Amino acid sequence: MKSVKKPESIDQGSNEPQSEPEMPGLATRRARFFYWLDNVFWYHYKWHVVAVAVLLALTVFFARDILLKTTPDFQFVVASNTYVSNENISDLCDIASETIRNPDSGKPAVVLGQGMHMSEEGQWGMAAYMKMATILMDESIMFFIFDADLLEAFFSESSRFADLAELGYSVVEGKPWLVDVSGLPPLENAGLSGMACYAAIQLPRNTDAELRLPDPNCLVFLDAIIDTQGGEY
User: Which of 7, 77, 107, 157 has the lowest CB atom count within 10 Å?
Assistant: First the structure.
């Protein structure tokens, strides 16, 4: 009687961990390096690399802010229902940087001017009005130039602004906190041509009314703008 050959047992697998596949035989050192980088290093350490990259980016950002002092020395706002942008007010930024000095270094001030178009349609217009309301609460921004259409909405409370008539400026009749800057060259170049424009300086919020004096840099800037009446600046 012939013996029956038993079938070979089927390998059901092993519980032992699979070892990483060996690096294939690649022809060049460069090919072997990139194979290792993609299939070994990046596979195991990609999240470590991402975390380190984020930390380095944050470190560079804060170091740059400290070393280059990106926080402005002086800020102002130009707001109008006519289109105005940050690019439009470059002349005013130049005037501010040329006339205002950093109190510590004596170098020209780092200036930030914001051009605000207030009559944008829909949600953009609402956002502009909300932004202006927020800016008026920010004591780092004291100097404002605006067209007559915005007077009642934002600049009608005389107690919030410096009495410029008392400081010797020629002001709008009945409104001693407003100086008429209509038609001055930097305003014309900003696109605010053929309309009434005013300048106002907001006072710091101090409980002692006698100490509520305008920022001297605002007065320096206002003087420089007025001096452009002759067309040279």
Answer: 7
Give residue for tokens 């032992």: 16
Domain ranges of the chain: 23-68, 74-230
Q: Long-range contacts for 105-109 (Cβ within 8 Å, ≥24 apart)?
A: 109/72, 109/73, 109/74, 109/217
Q: Please give the full DSSP string across 30-42, using - where no structure is assigned.
A: HHHHHHHIIIIIH
Predicted local confidence at residue 186, as pLDDT:
93
User: In 3D, which of 115, 95, 109, 102 has the Cα closest to residue 192?
Assistant: 115
Backbone angles phi, psi at 203, to 5 degrees: -90, 150
3-class state of residue 71 by DSSP = coil
Q: For residues 205 and 149, give the distance between their C-alpha atoms in angstroms, rounded to a whole number.
A: 26
Please spell the DSSP secondary structure of 191-213, one letter per residue: T--SS-EEEEEBPP--S-GGG--
Dist. CA 139–CA 142, nearest whole Å? 6
Residue 72 is classified by DSSP as: -
The pTM of this model reads: 0.67
Mean pLDDT check: name the lowest of 71-80, 107-116, 175-184, 201-210: 201-210
Kind and range of the H or E run holding 115: strand 111-117
Range with the poorest average pLDDT among 59-68, 161-170, 175-184, 204-213? 59-68
What is the DSSP-derived secondary structure letter of residue 150? G
CATH code, 74-230:
3.40.190
